[in-house]
Design brief:
69 residues, alpha+beta, three-stranded antiparallel β-sheet
């Protein structure tokens, strides 16, 4: 399931003509001239950026919680 969702979103990115940049980045510049800086690639200037974290919620440890997965 996880791979199917990943493939779906990668296909959507290609369908829209967007560039997928994977890795770490930080916003820099100004609000009028935003820049996305990354140690993986050169800086990116764009009017809009979509940031997808790919995170998942954590489950705190509780006795018996493993039975409810």
């Amino acid at each position: 399931m996880k791979t199917m969702l990943s493939d779906k979103y990668v296909d959507l990115i290609a369908d829209h003509g967007w560039e997928l940049c994977s890795g770490y980045a930080a916003f820099a510049g100004t609000q009028e001239d935003p820049v996305l800086e990354s140690p993986v690639r050169e800086s990116v200037n764009a009017a809009l950026c979509l940031v997808a974290t790919g995170s998942a919620p954590g489950t705190p440890w509780r006795r018996g919680v493993h039975r409810f997965r």
